[in-house]
Each structure stands twice: as C-alpha cells, then as structure tokens.
Amino acid sequence: MPTILLPTPLRPYADGQTAVAAAGETVEEALRDLVRRFPKLARHLYDEGGRLRSFVNVYKNDEDVRHLEGGRTALAASDSLTIVPSIAGGAPGGSQALAAPPQAGLSHEEIRRYSRHLIIPEVGLAGQKRLKAAKVLCVGAGGLGSPLALYLAAAGVGTLGVVDFDVVDESNLQRQILHGTADVGRPKLRSAAERIRAVNPHVRFVPHELRLDSANALDLLRGYDVVADGTDNFPTRYLVNDACALLGKPNVWASIFRFEGQATVFWAGHGPCYRCLYPEPPPPGLVPSCAEGGVLGVLPGLLGVIQASETIKLLLGAGEPLLGRLLLVDALSMRFRELKLRRDPDCSLCGPNRTQTTLVDYAEFCGLPQAAAEEQRVQGVPSLSVEELSSRLQTGEDLLLLDVRDPHEVEICAFEGSLRIPLVALSENLHRLSTAEEIVVHCKVGGRSAKAVELLLASGFRKVRNLAGGIDAWAERIDPAMPRY
Ligand SMILES: [Zn+2]
C-alpha cells in the first residue's frame, strides 16, 4: 500500500503517527482512506465543499500532484505521499542575475579576517569584495534571524539591515542567540547591533525598528540585494513575498515548527514565489504558531544557517541555489528531503496573467478580522475569573476542574484533583462527565478551553464555564509558587 507521510501539525489528529499506509490506487482514494480512518484530519485537509484545502499541498514522491494529474494521479504500492501544509516558518543563470555590485576594496585587516574565504576558489578576493558590496535585509531578529545575521556579519556582508520592533523576552533565549540574559526587556535591535558589532565591526548594521507593512515594505526592500525572511506569521510572510516579487528580489525563506523546518529560495521571474506554493493562507487558528506549538531551540539554528548559506551563494553567484526546491528538515529523525517546486502558471502575483500588481491589506488577506471576531466569540462563552475560582474553592464548593491541555503541559503545572482530557480527545470522552455537575474548564490561557466550553454546551451540558486567562492567570495572580511557561 502507498505510504502517506504526515507533518507534525497533523499528527495529533492521526493518533500521533508519522506515516500511515493507505489503501487506494489514486491520490484521492488514498487521502479518502486516510480521512476515513482518522476522521479528525478531515477539516484540516478538506474545506466545507469537500475540496482539498488550498494551503495543503500533496506530493507523490518528490512531485507536487498538481503538476501530475491531481487527485487522479495513479499510485503504486511503493509510492509515498507527503502532505506539506503551509507552516506559523534550479537557477537559470542563478545568482548571476543579481546586479553586479560595485567593487569594494579590502583593507589588510579585512584580508586577514577573511583569509579562509579568500583561499576558496569559489569566493576568492573577487567574491569577498562582492560580499562587502552586498546589502542583505533580514526580516526579524528572532530564532531564524539570529544565526542568519550572525553568520552573514561574520562572512563579511557589507550592509546588513534587520527589521524588528520586538523586545527580548525570557522565552526567546532558548533559541534567539543574538540576545543574552541581560538583554531581557531591551529592544531586539539594540542587542542585535551590539552582537553584530562585536562579531565584525566592518559590517554596516542598519536597524529598522518598525512593523513591516504595505505602506513601507516596497521602499524598505528596494534598497537591498537579497531579502531573508525569518518571520513567524502569515501576514508578514505574504507581505515579504509579494514585495520581493514586485521588486524582482530573491527571498531566502525558511519556516520552523517543533522539530521540522522548511527552506527554499523564492524568486519571481527565476522560480516560484510563495503564492505559487500557497495561493491562500490557512484560516486563522487552524495552523499553530511556535508560541502555541513550541520549537526545538536548535532548529532555527539549522534553518537559519541554511538561509545564510543560500544568501551568500546568491551574492557570490556560486553553486546551485535552493530555487524550485523545498528542503524539508526533520530534526527528530535527522532526515533531509527535497521536493520539487514549480511556478504556478496561474499565480496571481508572478504568473503571465497576474492580477496583483500592488501590495494588499495582509491582515485582511490572512483573515485576522475573522480571528478578532473569533476571539470575541471566545470571550462570549460563560466564564469566571481566577479570583472567583479561588474563593469558590476556599469555601469548599463542589465543582469539577477540567484541564484540556496536553499531557506534557500538565506535567509542568496543574490543579490538584483536576480531570485531564486533552481538547482533541474531548468529544469521545464526554461520558466521563456529568451534566449534573458544575464544570470549570481551563487550558493555558483560555483559548482551547473556550472551544471545549462551546463543545460541551453544544453537547447538552449547561453548568459549564471557562476559566478566563487559564492556569497562567492563576499562576500570575493567585499562586506565585506555580511555574509559568
Ligand atoms: Zn507566484
């Protein structure tokens, strides 16, 4: 039977499996068999009309089935199908197409510093001068942006711009190696500037402390030769893609989730753009972000260094860029796979009949207004505050605390005596709850538990309330001894 390989975000809906043998002689039959056996996958793979969602791509071996016969593509028992959802992460002439930068001279000191580059034939003095004359923009000074900016600076890229408006948070330090413990609370660009200057004072560091948007992106990107996208959200990812495509700039791209990463080079006119791959973003909330799903600390290191390598190759005009190829990295099995990416002839942005010639409203495009409406709905479910819960527990009132977080979160902190059923398993465990009982549902910050409250209300439970702010609010306001994560 053909094997279907599942990415991390979909595994919870398939009992945690990474690969599933599915019966079927075509792609469509195999996918239907998969969904028959794991019905919870259905809403992640198919839309309400029963069509495969546009942010889910399916590959037979290394070919996108859209470039074969779509769902009717025949499958043999030895074939594998890879599902590649967009994740919260060949060079015709290749880099020669980058405008030849003006030659910049190197001082004796720079010659000593870059000597291990100068003795590689593919770099040499001419290549090092190209790097010195080059201007690279890193979008984001976070997990991917940290190794990316550090290695580009060390390699001698002459002008390094970084866009970021965030401040360093303690939870960033596990992976964002531009920032140190003493930088917590400071703007990321300030610690980035200091680190980069310490690594290589010959680099001109240009901080752009702003939120990239449709009004400023084109002007900002125009001044750079290569853009490296290290963002973690869909609006910025589409914005960077569109601005790069409109300006004809290469976009060295990567994304990460838990143990998995993806990397490629998008370059309209030379290869596909991000919209060729994913014409539309997933609906908000369907794809978890690193903040919700977590990420292995070294993973952005792996992927950011791949981005740095691709950037340097483009600037040197050396080797074969990751253009038209999607590199999949699975750090858990330490396997690298490669899928072919093709330009979409119907792409609205880079196809011959393109309809999009300007930047759009990316918050709107990515459904953030719906997300805000969803949030309001979440706030609309019956709830109680942690203070109210505290006083009710003190008076010894009889109520059931239902914890819908995943087991590995429960291990970090939990309420004593709570009933623990992860949200994904709630619908099949309703028999463990009584409608007569008063139930308070909680998760980490209140989003998943609000969904659980909705599910319970829809299933006939009446005395159900959501704990506003979740166990995190409890740890913050009621019990400071409880760890926060
Ligand atoms: Zn395109």
Give a nutshell description of this structure.
It contains 18 helices and 18 strands. By secondary structure, the chain is an alpha/beta fold. It folds into three domains: 3-85, Roll (Ubiquitin-like (UB roll)), CATH 3.10.20.30; 94-371, NAD(P)-binding Rossmann-like Domain (Rossmann fold, 3-Layer(aba) Sandwich); 381-477, Rhodanese-like domain (Oxidized Rhodanese, domain 1, 3-Layer(aba) Sandwich), CATH 3.40.250.
For this entry, give a set of tags.
485 residues; alpha/beta; Ubiquitin-like (UB roll); Rossmann fold; Oxidized Rhodanese, domain 1; 3 domains; eight-stranded mixed sheet; five-stranded mixed sheet; 18 strands; 32% helix; 16% strand; globular; binds zinc ion
Element layout with pairings:
Elements: E1 3-5, E2 19-21, H1 27-37, H2 42-45, E3 56-60, E4 63-64, E5 80-85, H3 108-113, H4 115-118, H5 124-133, E6 135-139, H6 145-155, E7 159-163, H7 188-199, E8 204-208, H8 217-222, E9 226-229, H9 234-247, E10 251-257, E11 260-266, H10 274-277, H11 290-293, H12 299-316, E12 325-330, E13 335-340, H13 362-365, H14 368-380, E14 383-384, H15 386-394, E15 400-403, H16 407-410, E16 419-420, E17 439-442, H17 447-458, E18 464-467, H18 470-477
Helix pairs in contact: 6-7, 6-12
What does this structure look like?
There is one protein chain. By secondary structure, the chain is of the alpha/beta class. It folds into 3 domains: about 80 residues, Beta-grasp domain (Ubiquitin-like (UB roll)), CATH 3.10.20; about 280 residues, NAD(P)-binding Rossmann-like Domain (Rossmann fold), CATH 3.40.50; about 100 residues, 3-Layer(aba) Sandwich (Oxidized Rhodanese, domain 1), CATH 3.40.250. The chain has 18 helices and 18 strands. The strands form 3 sheets. It has an 8-stranded mixed sheet, with helices on both faces. Strands 2-1-5-3-4 form a 5-stranded mixed sheet, with helices on one face. It has a 5-stranded parallel sheet with strand order 14-18-17-15-16. The protein is globular, with a radius of gyration of 25 Å. The chain starts with a strand and ends in an 8-residue tail after the last helix. About 0% of the residues have low confidence. Bound molecules: zinc ion. Zinc ion (ZN) binds next to helix 10. Zinc ion binds next to helix 10.
